[in-house]
Specification:
By secondary structure, chain A is mainly α. Chain A is built from seven helices and two strands, in the order H-H-H-H-H-E-E-H-H. At the A-B interface, helix 1, helix 2, helix 3, helix 6 and helix 7 of A face helix 1, helix 2, helix 3, helix 6 and helix 7 of B. The structure holds a DNA duplex (30 and 30 nucleotides).
DNA sequence: ACTAGATATATTGATATCAATAGAAATAGA
DNA sequence: TCTATTTCTATTGATATCAATATATCTAGT
């Protein structure tokens, strides 16, 4: 049989250059590496930093809203909490108001780590923004929010 | 001891709202789910689709440039190829010009799968672009490329 | 109060991601 | 040519990601 038609190379190039999903994955990987490298001295990845920062609130939040905030699957959050619990940086405890649920809270050690990470985030992020043309960062944030 | 100062909640909100890395991860996860769902009927994830599409070229490419194109670590590419090789959609074979390296090539079956996936990508991507204000998609692509 | 459906989370299995490391081959410099 | 360095890829181990599924609990309707 005549292995039918093939996808033209031009189509491949079009998909590569056009696909918003691919561009988002590429940018996400690149930024993840940038912040992972910067945060390595305090023992955090970019994702762990974002997760822990999202737990720094007056009231311990349940898991669902945190997963939604980070736009991740709830099972991903369950897994992501494991290494942080093991290191004693995050506590997961029963929700007295809803026995199905659990609440998340930073420990003192967790807060200390986050405090150490904050200036690293600030300088890394400032350098990143400085590398972009004026106004691009703010516009990009708005565009990314529209996708998530 | 007086557990020192805590990070103010306002700072947390600032980081959450400002961090380009977090926004990129969120958008990347959301788009990955969108395309993963759409491509599920043909048995591909968004990443597998992008990888296979990048292999649809006149000459089989070595691994390094492909990893660079996808902005991923080379070890990630090695791992990502495994399930595609197992299914017989991608071949990895020695590079006759450089005995350290290997070249990547879609099989006929791989091309057929990719062909089946193409219209799904097209409709999904068209719907996505249609959901954004006129001009945003093109601008976003340029901004994302600047980050990767 | 009972029950049906909805909600919150955990577990398992597959894949994705990268750091650290190692091996083999190519390349550049003496 | 010989050697030091660089380049190309694979492996291991840790974490991240999600689908499918299961369990416990809550809530709404009766």
């Amino acid at each position: 049989m005549s292995n039918a038609a093939e996808i033209p190379f031009a189509t491949t190039l079009l998909v590569r250059d056009t696909c918003l999903c691919l561009h988002a994955q590429r940018a996400a990987r690149a930024l993840a590496r940038l912040f992972d490298d910067a945060l390595r001295p305090v023992g955090l990845t970019n994702g762990q930093f974002s997760l822990m920062m999202s737990l720094n609130r007056p009231e311990p939040p349940p898991m669902g809203p945190v997963a939604k905030l980070l736009a991740m699957d709830q099972t991903t959050l369950t897994a992501a909490l494991k290494p942080l619990q093991r290191r004693g940086w995050v506590e997961v405890f029963p929700n007295p108001r809803d026995k199905r649920g659990r609440l998340l809270r930073l420990t003192s050690e967790g807060k200390a780590v986050l405090m150490a990470a904050l200036p690293i985030w600030e300088s890394t992020h400032a350098a990143l923004e400085a590398s972009l043309p004026e106004g691009d960062a703010e516009r990009l944030r708005r565009d990314l929010v529209a996708l998530a």
